[in-house]
Structure formats: structure tokens, C-alpha cells
Amino acid sequence: MEKNNNNSPLEETTNEKILNDLKTFVTQMNNLESLRLPQRAYTIIRHAIRNLVLPPGRTILEREVAEALGMSRTPVREALVKLEMDDALELIPRRGFFVAEIEIGDLNDIYRMNAALDGLAIEIATSNIDDKEIDNLEEIVNQQEIMIEKGKIKEWAKSDDEFHYRIIELSQNDSLNKVLDIYSDKLFRARLFTIDYRPIPKRSILEHKAMISCLRAQDGKAARTVMESHRQRAHKEIIKALETINQNK
Questions:
Q1: Same domain, 93 and 137
Q2: Cα–Cα distance, 230 to 137 (Å, whole number)
Q3: Same domain, yes or no: 134 and 231
Q4: Most exposed among 5, 107, 144, 153, judged by the fewest C-beta atoms under 10 Å?
Q5: What is the pLDDT of residues 20-41, one digit of tens each?
Q6: What order of strands is seen across the sheet that includes strand 59-60?
């Protein structure tokens, strides 16, 4: 993909807003003080990309990001290079860093793998989980219902991410955790990016409740089937939404 080397006045204005949003985003993050500057910069920028504060397809300059984070350019550059290695950014010579687009082909591959691994995670978790942990998952789902009723769909998306993260964590399988974590940012970003183009996630609530029922019954096979079906349905909805967004560009 060829990028234009000259920012338009509109793009410059938009970049200014994005950088102001980034400054605000930093103030909302916790537990940064204990991190070394390169790791702190990496954590902030990674989460900013994940949460669309730095949106897909935007070019960001090292010096602008350094200014927004209140750091020198050295730790920021180190963080940006690491994020390029993570496939979150692309370095454009003499231009800056380009925030990766959300690509349908890439997402198809990740979702197929994710459905299988999430299914494995919940099946393993079934034999590890106790009633208190199931109650905690149920409380997340109860909060999700309230968020949907209040129209807080982006807050629901974050709670949905927490629900799935908890299940993966409960599998107590470090290798599985590490593999799924590699792709978690891309999946969350795609879900958030398409949130306004997809149905209100009431079916997701029902599927989460079905998973909880399977966990209470200690039926790992059934839990795996529900999880895989849940991820496959979400996959289809997100791809359809992305196609609509791309058509409207």
C-alpha cells in the first residue's frame, strides 16, 4: 500500500486531535510508574492502538508521540520499533509509523485459530474452576446485560474481553495463554472498530450464560462446543461489518 508523503490540513488537524486524545488516554492508565520508560511507552502505545485512540491507517510521528507522552524520543522510538515487530505498526521511511489497518484476510486466519484455542481453554478450565470463580464470571455477564440496556456498547466490549480473558486465565495453561495473548489486541481492536456496524450483542449474553451453565455442570465438551460456536458467529458478524465499512470508504 502506497502512502501519501504530504499531510493535508485536515489530516494535520485530525492528528492534533488524536495526540490530544492520547494525552488524555495516558491519564486514565494505572500502574505505569514502576515501568522503565521504554516499557512504559510500549504499554501506552500498544493500548492506545488496541483501543483505537491511535486508529487504523493513521501515520504517527515519533516526535509527536514523545511530546504527547512527555518523554524523550529515545524510549518512544524503542517502543515503536518493538510494536513494528509485533505487527501493530509499519515504518514508512521519511514519513513516520503507520498504524496497521484491520485486514479481513489476516482476521480470518486469526479467528479460525482463536475459536479452536478458546474452545480448548474453556474445556481445560472446566476441570479447574470452582463455584466462586463461576460466580465471578456470572457477575461479569450480569454487568454486561446492564451495559446493553443502557446502550453502553463500548463498555460492553471491554467487559466481553474481560470475560474471555478470565476463562483463558482459568485454564491455568501458560503456553495457551501466551499464544492467545499474541492475537488478543488484533481481535479486540476489530471488535471495537466494528461495534457500531454489528447487531446489539444480546446473543452474546445468551451464549455466555450457556458457557456458565456448562461450567457449573462440569461439562467441558459442551462448554467447548458453545465457545467455538460463539467465536465463529462473532467472526462472521465482524467480517460482514468490515466489508460494509470498506464499501463505505
A1: no
A2: 16
A3: yes
A4: 5
A5: 999 999 999 988 888 999 999 9
A6: 59-60, 96-99, 89-92
